[in-house]
Amino acid sequence: EKSLIFLGLESSCDDTAAAVVRHAPGTPPEVLSSVVAGQTELHADFGGVVPEIAARAHTEKLDICVEEALETAGMSLTDLDAIAVTAGPGLIGGVLAGVMCAKGLSAGSGLPLVGVNHLAGHALTPRLTDQTEFPYLMLLVSGGHCQFLIAKGPEEFSRLGGTIDDAPGEAFDKTAKLLGLPQPGGPSVEREALKGDETRFRFPRPLLDRPGCDMSFSGLKTALLRERDRLVAEHGGLYRQDRADLCAGFQAAIRDVLAEKSRRALSEYLSLSPTTPTLAVAGGVAANKSLRMALEAVCEQFNTAFLAPPLALCTDNAAMIAWAGIERFRAGQVDGMDLSARPRWPL
Ligand code: KG4
Ligand code: ZN
Q1: Where are the chain's structural domains?
Q2: What is the pLDDT of residues 312-341, one digit of tens each?
Q3: Fewer CB within 10 A of the end CB, N or C, for the chain?
Q4: In sequence order, what are the residues at sequence separation of 6 or more whose Cβ sits closer than 8 angstroms to the Cβ of residue 301?
């Protein structure tokens, strides 16, 4: 096995990212650079990501991100061993922009091309940050995803369950919008929740009565909307304390569902009797402190290590794509110029 240096590209949602990762066998991988250009302001007026706006921004920003990632790493294209790119799942325009950029770089330099599944990128992050051994349990919880996976190998994942409708981050963002709080909703709802009483409003914890690890979060938003409208009708607006209590109650509901489903996922995972059990999290919602504390407590109960990678590698980034590319490459996988963008691509 030789030392490898990969450039990674990511553009499947609303972050344009490029990164350089080096891995010498027997040593921990090194993130030599990781550039992320967000688009929050571009979509701020729309209450969600607008695919056409995102695709255009990716096309504009990819080259700049690549240049900056190479410069920060002190590398040129000739120092690299391959180019890894997110080939899905995600918004088709963005994924296409990334794949076309990677193909251009590959054609110009002769470097091999490695297509990466965005979810595999998140799911392999514990190996980038902590050299976690397979198998481990992974909770992916972001604005677009929510699922439990057992990572068994670089391309071998089994899905234990996930959301059947909204992702928790999406629910946080919609809640913020309903309460007039700034986007992204997660951090602003969390801030409000700190001042609130989580017991005042009892929001539903859907699907806890059913076995398995599936979850549902769309009803929560409807319940919140109903309470908000009731309060507004009652006293002509929302008091500051009302808003804080709504946020606290909402956050508690999400936390309780994720904690309980984590218990079930851990039970299933531990029945496979791995040697060193680990629950790792990834995705922007993993930044939530109340959720983290709840998951830590669950892991303690189960005698399992809890791993939360640094936030910059939990949220969308290209270092995880470069790393997943290295893992695929070491497993003997490369792609050609026929690599296609796959908007839907389950693990
Ligand atoms: O992983 P990410 O950066 O992008 C994708 O969705 O793929 O996650 C962003 C999501 C947003 O919905 C944001 O509101 C949520 O993560 N988020 C949080 C917090 N910080 C970010 N949700 C809850 N609490 C937070 N502190
Ligand atoms: Zn993501």
Answers
A1: 4-130+313-330, 136-310
A2: 999 999 999 999 999 999 999 999 999 999
A3: N
A4: 263
Query: Quick one: which atom of ligand 1 is closest to the CA of 13?
Result: 7
Q: Tell me what ipTM this predicted complex has.
A: 0.98
Is 173 known to sit in a ligand binding site? Answer: yes
Count CB neighbours of 167 within 10 A.
23
Q: Atom 18 (ligand 1): residue with closest C-alpha?
A: 186
Residue that wins the pLDDT comparison between 115 and 276: 115
How far does the centroid of ligand 1 lie from the alpha carbon of residue 310, in Å? 14
State the fold for domain 136-310.
Nucleotidyltransferase; domain 5 (3.30.420)
Q: Is 143 annotated as ligand-binding?
A: yes
- The CA–CA distances, whole Å, from 321 to 7, 85, 121, 122 equal 9, 7, 5, 8
- In CATH, which of 3.90.550.10, 2.130.10.10, 3.30.420.40, 3.10.290.10 is domain 4-130+313-330? 3.30.420.40
Q: Tell me the pLDDT band of 175, cut-offs 50, 70 and 90.
A: very high
SS3 158: strand
* 103 Cα: distance to centroid of ligand 1 (angstroms): 30
Mean pLDDT of 169-176: 94
Report whether 102 contacts 338 (CB < 8 A). Answer: no
Same fold, 4-130+313-330 and 136-310: yes
> pTM for this structure?
0.94
If you measure from the C-alpha of residue 322 to the centroid of ligand 1, how many angstroms do you get, rounded to a whole number? 22
Closest-CA residue, ligand 1 atom 8, reads: 284
